[in-house]
Write a structure and sequence with these properties.
The protein is an alpha/beta fold. The protein is built from six helices and six strands; from the N terminus they run H-E-H-E-H-E-H-E-H-E-E-H. It has one domain: Vaccinia Virus protein VP39 (Rossmann fold, 3-Layer(aba) Sandwich), CATH 3.40.50.
């Protein structure tokens, strides 16, 4: 993410282009960036779209989240690779539950020491969906995960009056 293009092309198959596509589809008024390094794409996107960017550039971002409100979208990049799992889970959980309804996580497992590496199932267990995988010319892999509150909990076919013992009471009583 450090070498982001100023205005990436949407046809480009890169993390920057995918992130720009996500931002374009959400059109957030505010973005929270949690990254140990600046993400130039976010800065440029906010300049072009009259969006407020709040950046947390810290090895331990959790204390800096206190007192922050809600954001249109939160982006975590170049951060989880340097945190233990407990801190990472707390970061993702707090962002997801308190600070935003849309979350993007960019993760490069090869940058993390072996004991700190996250597996795909750990992201899925936190409610994130695997969106994209990118491979650099040097062979490094980056995965992009997303979380959307609106689509996280799918509609179940059984949760309607047709499958209840007394469908005429659907929505009348709360017990």
């Amino acid at each position: 993410m450090q070498n982001a293009k100023q205005h990436p092309a949407q046809t480009d198959n890169s993390p920057q282009a995918r992130l720009a596509g996500i931002l374009d589809s959400h059109q957030p008024e505010s973005i929270l960036s949690v990254s140990q390094n600046p993400v130039p794409l976010l800065e440029h996107w906010c300049e072009d779209h009259n969006c407020t960017l709040t950046q947390i550039v810290d090895t331990d971002p959790l204390p800096r989240l206190k007192g922050l409100g809600r954001f249109g979208i939160a982006v975590v990049a170049d951060q989880l690779e340097y945190m233990n799992h407990q801190q990472g889970e707390e970061l993702i959980g707090r962002l997801r539950n308190l600070h935003t309804e849309s979350l993007v996580v960019l993760y490069q497992g090869q940058l993390a020491p072996q004991r700190l590496r996250w597996q795909r199932n750990e992201f899925l267990g936190m409610g994130l969906r695997h969106d994209s995988r990118f491979t650099s010319e040097e062979g490094r892999e980056m995965n992009l995960y997303t979380y959307e509150l609106a689509t996280y909990n799918f509609v179940r076919t059984w949760n309607n009056p047709r499958f209840w013992a007394n469908p005429e009471n659907w929505g009348k009583y709360w017990w």
